[in-house]
Amino acid sequence: MPNYRYGARDAAGKPLQGVVEAHSPDDARDRLERRGWTPERVELAVLPKPRPDTPPPRRARPGWAVIVILIVLALGATVWFDPFDLIPGWGG
Q: Rounded CA gap, 74 and 90, in Å?
């Protein structure tokens, strides 16, 4: 059901404003009159969408993972090829 913003007066003539849920503008007027109010204006209300309470989760940046992988590969290549002959009888 859509929402309708209204302006009305109560039995004492006090101005009222608000939002009522109804099937049509005529239905909104009927609901206000059943409360004993005199509707002055009824228009379709455009209400803001409710905001979520929690922010969306942040995506982790892959930058640190790439750096870690490169370091591990570099260390592995250094040990495998052993260019400084750190491991006797290993490498070329």
A: 17
Q: 16-63: per-residue pLDDT in tens?
A: 999 999 999 999 999 999 999 999 999 999 877 777 788 878 877 778
CA atoms within 13 A on the CB side of 72: 6
Predicted local confidence at residue 32, as pLDDT:
96
Contact 7, 45 (CB under 8 A): no
The burial of 27, by beta-carbon neighbours within 10 Å (0-12 exposed, 13-18 middle, 19 or more buried), is given as middle
Here the tokens at position 16 are: 């009222």
Contact in structure between 32 and 43 (CB atoms under 8 Å) = no
Q: How far apart are CA 63 and CA 85, in angstroms?
A: 33
**Which tokens in the block code for residue 52?**
């979520």
Q: Select the more confidently predicted residue: 6 or 79.
A: 6
Identity of residue 82: D
